[in-house]
Amino acid sequence: MLRRILFRLPTRASLSTISHRILASPSPSSSHLSKSFPLSSPFKSFSSSSRTSPILYPDDNDDCIHHDDDFPEAAEPPEKLDDELLRDVDSIVSSLHDFAADSAAAKLRLEQCDASASPELVSAVLSRLRNDWAAAFTFFLWAGTQPGYSHSIRQYHAMISILGKMRRFETAWSLVHEMRSSARGPSLLTPQTILILIRRYCAVHDVGRAINAFYVLKRFGFTPGIEDFHGLLSALCRYKNVEDAEHLLLCNEKTFPFETKSFNIVLNGWCNVLVRVGEAKRFWRDM
């Protein structure tokens, strides 16, 4: 019966120079964010706050590009690329082969590659390299230096998602800051950018940093609304942090008034994610 009532949740620089600049950029630590945006006292009682390291589950390593909704603009499948573009994609991926074994040689091969950067090429290569964050990031930096090309929101989101999946959060935050202060035009930062990182934190069960990331929206000039709050609740529940999601929902009634969808998200987490019918019935009675 419970399952029936649920709503489905729905100037050219060298690579080494650029890499050093990006990796050296400050990223918001948990303590810094808490100081900038104090969390209300109920947040301190989250069950995950006392963990010294994230607890990983077998399904944490889901494919962040093709089977995740971190960014809906997934790269076009290789079979739909034209022959010339597909050859360029293959050439770049081949040049970065065995990147971990000899990164210097791989970077040199990439620098000598005669492929022209384009949104389609970058999206396709990032899709192919999604499980090798270092090679993907090296290519991303290289593409950003190519004449006539600049990364769009889609390419930034793809790279941030890959970095988050591989737990490279500091580097991901560096790209967030780069999007915000883009020298080539207006800010590319959107609430969806932060939601990608929220989901990645939830995937490693770092609830504290997921909530801090939510409050970073204010720092970047966005006003978190009910849809953003639903995104946070959905991310928590999706990765089995249902108890924390319920606590967050109940503690924020004044800021985010209760809605049917809010309760359905948590109810879905108890029923379909954790499959704990007893907790679902308790939550249903409390509703």
Could you name the key traits of this structure?
287 residues; single chain; disordered N terminus; 57% helix; mainly alpha
Q: What do you see in this structure?
A:
The chain contains 15 helices and no strands. It has 287 residues and is mainly α. It has a domain at 1-6 and 29-47 and 194-287. It holds the Pfam family PPR. Keywords: Repeat. One of its GO terms (biological process) is RNA splicing. This is Pentatricopeptide repeat-containing protein.
Strand content: under 5%
**SS summary, helix count:** 15
Number of DSSP E strands: 0
Oligomer: single chain
Rg from C-alpha positions?
Answer: 20 Å
Low-confidence stretches: 1-79
Keywords: Repeat
InterPro entries: BIR6-like (IPR044578), PPR_rpt (IPR002885), TPR-like_helical_dom_sf (IPR011990)
Pfam families: PPR (PF01535)
GO biological process, one term: RNA splicing
Provide a quick synopsis of the model.
The chain is mainly α.
